[in-house]
Amino acid sequence: MKLPKFILVLTALIFLLFVACSNETNNQRSASVIPAVEVVQAQFGGLPLEERLNGIVRAANQVDIYPRISAPVEEIYVQNGDQVNRGEALIRLRDTEYRERLRQAEASLRINIAQRRQAQAALGEIESQLRRERILAERDLSSQMEIEQLEARLESAEASVELANAQVEQAQSNVYEQNEALEQTIIRAPVSGTVGQRNAEIGMQVNGNSRLFTIGDLTRSRITINLTERMLGYIRTGHNVRIFSENIPDTILSAQLSRISPFLGIGSFSTEAEIDIDNEDGLLLPGMFVTVDVLYGESEQTTIIPLSAIYRHPQTGETGVYVASSFGMESDAIEELESNGGSGTLSNPTDIEFRTVEVVARGRDAAGVDGIRSGDWVVTVGHNLLVRDDSGQARVRPSSWQSIMEIQRLQPHDLLREIMNDNVVERQQPDTSIQN
Question: pLDDT per residue over 82-129, tens digit each?
């Protein structure tokens, strides 16, 4: 029996629709098993050599103010944040006891001066008697015994004068000491700068262990870092440094290593190095912890890849990189990618192979390697997916060096926050697939 023409057409349409759906399903299934990875292009050049260290910020000429005497606080002339000049009064301590001690010392000095005059007068009298006796002895009117007695009294009188002189000097020294102590009741700024960390109140008893203020020049800062014995072999004064902190985001300060102490600490085998830097903007606060990158040179010219591209294969134990051997981009597309500092779109499936490399130089974010060429596209994210997949292919998303460096520098908690933020954005976006 001959089927109607419309039934044949309907059957053909259903068959074609079934084939099309089957092909689409197979394509989706095939695409789903092909891993997607991030790649970046290897470069040729010198690898900056640097050491990342932690530093502590201090103000220039930063000093802690301690009293030299023990007394209650009577007056305070400055507050936190005040600008002071060298020699300016900061605090006045009670001086009643020190004035009394000075008065007693001055009275003792006057007594000792009077006693010295008496001793000098007695000495002069004995010297006169001795001269008369010697004249009489020449005329046989005096005996030798009387002369010897006067000479003995003369020696005693001279000793008394010497003792009186010593007592006067001692009394003068005591007056000077008591006068210095009285002057210490006025505590003055030893340097010019800004006052901070006030720890003084009127009426409180202070002594030599009581820190009252901290003063320093906030327009200039000094950063202290620790260098190990090994670092002293290649880090020198004058090397450039980069300074940054999470408390001053999007800011990198540049300076030079100012000085290095030549003495290693006993037991620590490390020493201190200092960095002087202008701080006119007030970004660096005394006591702040900062990160310091010391740039001490550059490696030989070689192929440079991000550290995240280096992978230790779990099955063979070899160190190498995954290379997208059949992937390529036009030069203008690469320039646009680097200028935008972002990532491109996923490519069609491309061949991926694992190549062993030898690390010849290692920096903080990148490494120089032998085993691949400049211009090769290396995998930086998704190595584990390639290990589990044995197809030798992957869909790659090209990324710029800038974006890879930023990802590598993220701390784990920062990276987790970025992922969570991305997920929130995706959930807030409408699902257009259901509408279509």
Answer: 999 999 999 999 999 999 999 999 999 999 999 999 988 888 888 888
Which carries the bigger pLDDT value, residue 333 or residue 46?
46
Average pLDDT, integer, range 343-370:
86
- What does the pLDDT look like over 13-45, one tens digit per residue? 334 334 444 444 444 444 457 888 999 999 888
The DSSP secondary-structure symbol of 2 reads P
CA atoms of 55 and 245, how far apart (whole Å) = 10
Of 257, 251, 259, nearest in space to 282 by CA: 251
Cα dihedral 116, 118, 122, 127 sign: positive
In angstroms, rounded to a whole number, what is the distance separating the alpha carbons of residues 60 and 230?
29
Separation between Cα atoms, residue 87 and residue 40, nearest integer Å:
61
pTM comes to: 0.61
Quote the CA–CA distance of 104 and 182 in Å, as a whole number: 13
C-alpha separations of 157 from 63, 114, 118, 146, 149 in Å: 54, 15, 10, 16, 12
Can you tell me the distance from the alpha carbon of 390 to that of 372, in angstroms, rounded to the nearest whole number?
A: 22
Calculate the alpha carbon distances from 135 to 125, 128, 157, 275, 324 in Å. 16, 11, 21, 82, 125
How far apart, in Å, do the first and last CA atoms of the chain sit? 43
Using DSSP bridges, classify how beta strands 36-41 and 393-398 pair: parallel, antiparallel or unpaired: parallel
